[in-house]
Specification:
The protein is an alpha/beta fold. It has 19 helices and eight strands.
Amino acid sequence: MFENLTERLQKAIKNIRGYGKITEENISDIMREVRLALLEADVNYQVVKEFTNRVKEKALGEEVRVSLSPSEVFVKILKDELLVLLGKEQVSLNLSNKVNIIMLVGLQGSGKTTTIGKLGNYLRKNENKKPLFVACDVYRPAAIDQLKQLGKQLDIEVYEEGQGNPVDIAKNSLKYAEEHGYDSVLIDTAGRLHINEELMTELNNIKEVVNPHEILLVIDSMMGQDAINVITGFNEKLDLTGTILTKLDSDTRGGVALSVRHLTNVPIKFVGVSEKLDGLTFFEPTRMVGRIIGEGDIMSLMEKAEAVIDTEEAQKISKKINKGDFDLEDFLLQLKQIKKLGSIENILKMIPGASKLGLGNVNIDPKQMARIEAVILAMTVKERRNPNIIKASRKQRIAEGSGTSVQEVNKLLKQFEQMKKMMKMMKQGNFKFPMS
C-alpha cells in the first residue's frame, strides 16, 4: 500500500535537501510535487487542497525557525499533518461490556463476511475473547454457508436460523450468547449493491433490537473516491463507530485511508492487510504515517513476529548459528517461520529505509520459495545435517524427488554456503557491506 505515494513524497523530501532554507518560491515547487502525489494516490481533492495549504503555511511560519535543516523541518511538518488526516490517535474497540455486541455493515462485495472471520480471530487471539458469529445475511446465496465455513476453520460457533427474519435472528442470538458464555457477538448483516431505503430500514431495525456497542462499516479501499459517499450514507442512518478498510494491501494508492477520517470524522479501526484469516490489523495512525513517509514500521513487524514465531525454536537456531552448527534442517525451519509472517515483499517494506536500500520494489516468486522447500524435503536427514556429502548421484536423486533440476539443487547449496560464510563473518565482527 502507498507505494507510489511514498516514492513521490521521498522525491519531494530529497529535492528540498538541496535548499539552504525554505522560501515561498522553493516550497511552492515542492508542494506541487506533494499535491500531484496525493491526487495520484486517489486522495480526495478537497483534502489535498487543505493539506497542502497547511503544510506550506507551517513551513513558512515562525514555528519552524529552529536549528534544523529544511528537509528535517519539512518531514516533521508532513508527518504532523498526515497524522491530523488519519486521526492522530488510534481508536479502540468498546470491549468493556459483559457481552460485546459488534454489528458489521457494508455493501455487497466489500468483504464483510470474511472480515467477520478475521475480526473474530483477532478478538480471540489479541483480546482473549470468546466470540460468537451471527448469520443475519439471509438473502445472499451461500452467505450462511460461507460464515459457517469460516467458523469451522477458526473453531468459532455460528448462530443461524436459516432464511429467517434477520431482526429476530439478531435478537435471539444475544440470549443464546448469554446462556452459552460468549462475551462477544459479531453480527453479519446483509449488503446491497448500493445504499437503499430497504437495506437501511433492516439495519436500523437490527440496531434498535440489539443496541450494539460497535457498528463497523466494512469498505473496500479500492473503491476510491466513491468510498466517501458510501461511508457518509451509512453514517447518516446508523451513526457508525468506525470503519474497517479491506484490501489495503492490494491498493498501492491508499488514498481512501487519507480521506476517510478527515471528511467523515468516522475513525478507521482496522485494516485488512492480507487474504488470510489473521490478515487484520488494528489501525495505528502513527505507524501508518511512518510507512507513508518511507520510514517503515518496525514495531508492527516485531509484534507480528512475536505473535507467529516460535520463540523457543528461534532461540535454538540462534545458538546453533553462534556455534557454527547451522544446517539445512535449521534453514528449513527458518523458512517455515518466515512464511508465517506473510509475503516477504510486505515484510521488507516494513523495514525502515526499505526504499533507499532498493527493497521497496523487490518481487519474490512464492513458487521459488516452494521449490527451495521441496529440494530440502527431498534430502535425507543425514544430507540436511551435512550438505557436504551431497555429490552428483545424490543431487540427481534430490532433483528427481523434488521435481526440480540438478542446477536448482546446486544453486541452493551454493546460496546456503554463502549464507553460512556471512553468518561466520558477522559472528567474528568483521563483516562489511560491499561498496556499490
